[in-house]
Specification:
- The protein contains 5 helices and 3 strands.
- The chain has about 130 residues and is of the alpha+beta class.
- The protein has a 3-stranded antiparallel sheet.
- Strand 2 and strand 3 form a beta hairpin.
- Helix 3 crosses helix 4.
- It is elongated, with a radius of gyration of 18 Å.
- The chain starts with a helix and ends in a 13-residue tail after the last helix.
- The model has no long low-confidence stretch (mean pLDDT about 85).
Length: about 130
């Protein structure tokens, strides 16, 4: 199943690439700028190729599980603070509207995996695929 939370987080963070506080707006955004990975049952790490940190920025997994969580806004706020921007400067640097929220991640991924494999050979009920 992989880590659908990390995969969705990378997509969302990359959508905002080039619009975070301190980003070079003239530079073409790197489509693989972010790497998100699980470090424990409670946390994921966010690695930004354009803003390397030691230790990496971490986010609670429960935030990524919240379908309404706006990861781009969270990242902009945190990286802006770390880069020394004031809250007003962080808000002013957001030149585009907030991107999509995390949405439902685990259910659709489980359904995708189940549909890929089809019914079991000796299953008495045969399901049709849409």
């Amino acid at each position: 199943m992989g880590d659908p939370l990390a995969e969705r987080a990378m997509v969302l963070l990359n959508l905002g690439s080039g619009c975070y506080p301190g980003d070079d707006r003239e530079k073409l955004p790197d489509p693989e700028r972010f790497l998100v990975y699980r470090v424990s049952d409670l946390e994921h790490a966010v690695m930004d190729r354009e803003d390397r940190r030691d230790p990496e920025l971490t986010i609670q997994t429960k935030s990524l599980l919240n379908p309404l969580f706006c990861l781009e806004g969270w990242y902009a706020k945190h990286v802006g603070r770390l880069r020394g921007y004031s809250p007003a400067e962080i808000r002013a640097s957001r030149t585009k509207p907030p991107g999509p929220s995390m949405g439902e991640v685990l259910g659709p991924r489980a359904a995708e995996i189940l549909q890929e494999n089809g019914p079991y050979e000796k299953d008495s009920v045969y399901y049709s695929h849409p």
